[in-house]
Design goal:
- It is a single chain.
- The chain is mainly α.
- The protein has two domains: 20-100, no CATH class; 105-162, Roll (Structural Genomics Hypothetical 15.5 Kd Protein In mrcA-pckA Intergenic Region, Chain A), CATH 3.10.290.10.
- It contains eight helices and three strands; from the N terminus they run αααααααβββα.
- A three-stranded antiparallel β-sheet has the order 2-1-3.
- A hairpin with a 2-residue loop joins strand 1 (131-133) and strand 2 (136-137).
- Helix 2 (38-60) runs antiparallel to helix 3 (64-79).
- It is globular and about 60 Å long.
- This is Small ribosomal subunit protein uS4.
- Residues 104-166 form the RNA-binding S4 domain.
């Protein structure tokens, strides 16, 4: 029997814990995107940092392998809808910010599609199993939705929210007026 694998940390905490400007920015984004705590923000920030680090490495790499890795990086970023431009360069990857990743979270997309009234309500619907992506129940609000599945976000057919007459359903037409 083998030893259990050592789990790696999925986020890095800030170097200095009490910088007021950073705390204020994190709080504003946490409210805007309905994040539960700072750890969720730091996870997305670390994921962005990984993409940017890889892009910096590839800018200096002029070999054939570097070109292949750049194409793969662009493929990942385009599949998730983080990088939209067709003729994107590595400089475009370096110009990404954490909001470009936060916009691709399931919680944000459920709110923006009008399936929930607030980001917090979107989170609750997801955690309680009322939201399906491509016909499958997804209970993780931090799920990064690929751009081809973005139009397939709906209520679960077995959920009470699937009924048009449910009181928690948003009436998008009346809110626009």
């Amino acid at each position: 029997m083998g030893d259990p694998r050592k789990l790696s940390k999925k986020y890095d905490t800030p170097n200095h814990p009490w910088i007021g400007e950073r705390i204020k920015r994190e709080r504003e984004l946490a409210i805007k995107y309905g994040l539960l705590n700072k750890k969720e923000f730091w996870k997305m920030e670390t994921r962005l940092r990984t993409f940017r680090r890889q892009a910096r490495k590839l800018i200096s790499d002029t070999t054939e392998q570097g070109a292949k890795e750049a194409v793969q990086l662009f493929g990942i970023l385009k599949r998730y809808g983080i990088l939209i431009k067709e003729d994107a360069s590595l400089d475009d990857v370096l110009s990404l910010n954490v909001e470009s990743i936060l916009n691709r979270r399931l919680q944000t997309l459920v709110f923006r599609k009008g399936l929930a009234k607030t980001p917090k309500q979107a989170r609750q619907f997801i955690v309680h199993g009322h939201i399906a992506v491509n016909g499958r129940r997804v209970t993780s609000p931090s799920y990064l939705v690929p751009s081809d599945e973005e139009d397939l976000i709906t209520y679960m057919p077995t959920s009470p929210l699937a009924s048009e007459s449910h009181p928690e359903r948003t009436n998008v037409v009346s809110e626009d007026n």
